[in-house]
Amino acid sequence: MNHKKMQRMLSAFVDNELGEVWTKLVQEHLVECASCQQRLQELRSIRARIRDAATVDLPDNFLYSVQRSIRREEQESVMWLGTERFARNVVFALCVLVFGVVAFGSLLEPQPTLGEDRYISGEPSDSAAHAVLGSEQVISKEDVMIAALSK
Amino acid sequence: MEQQPDDLKLIEAFRKGDQKAFEEIVRRYQRQVANIIYLTLGNREEVDDLSQEVFVRVFRSLDRFEFDSSLYSWIYRIAVNLCIDEIRKKKIRKLIPLDFLTEKKLEGEKHHKETTTGSDVLLQKEKKEVILGALNQLSPIHRTVILLREYQDLSYGEIATTLRISPQAVKSRIFRARDELRELLKDYFQERT
Ligand SMILES: [Zn+2]
What we know:
heterodimer; A: about 150 residues; mainly alpha; about 80% helix; B: about 190 residues; Rna Polymerase Sigma Factor, Chain: A; 10 helices; globular; binds zinc ion
């Protein structure tokens, strides 16, 4: 039987993952092949060494630390939900306040429009119209914001 | 896949709110989880924290466990994924130079000749460092596959379910991982076994 092929089978053989037929063929080959016998020994040795290296033990209070960590996480999620709701309300209130003040201010002090000044000072009429249009744009943006907030 | 009858009862009890059931799950698997993390990462430092994180995740998602795998392979999957994330984050593999093995071996042998007492302890420690160093040279997937097989003793089918790859892929990865390990430990085998 082909030695190279048998050698490739050894990994699955050592894991008992070869079918019955192949297991038998490998066993027969092993009897007469020293090289494969050594390879098999090495594979078993790797396993033994990995198992020997697994020497870690967790502290005695491990279970307690897990439970504490779960509790802490639960508390945090409850707190976070509360904090989030509070923060959302504060931000909303601030927004209303700021836009309220801006809107109220602009209603109380209607400034003389730039267009009038420039018209008087003799500037070309279409630049004065631009300035008027510009201020109209500002007002309309504010209107949109107030409308959005009051929803 | 085989389900331990006891594990099934534990899951059911947990879902009914029995705290003792979760405690039993932790006790049953904590050592295995700690060691798979230790062998995968190659150092002791993060083992406690990561093991803790594994069981916190188990607690959080046990309600959604679907019995499509055994409880232990499900827990190992959580542990393995956490380790792979950790490796990706830190690129631990790069921390261990390729000449780690030979250097450690020579150093160990020098000590071995010099000291007459406590040589067994030293030899044990040296052996452990050599195998951890070799495991660290493997790619994360090869490392994981070989550990689930050699340490956790999972069958190819169980490893396939745990890692969500085909049994054929498990077979060839184990083969390649062993080949790499054999190559890395070649000198060591020649002199020690
Ligand atoms: Zn042979």
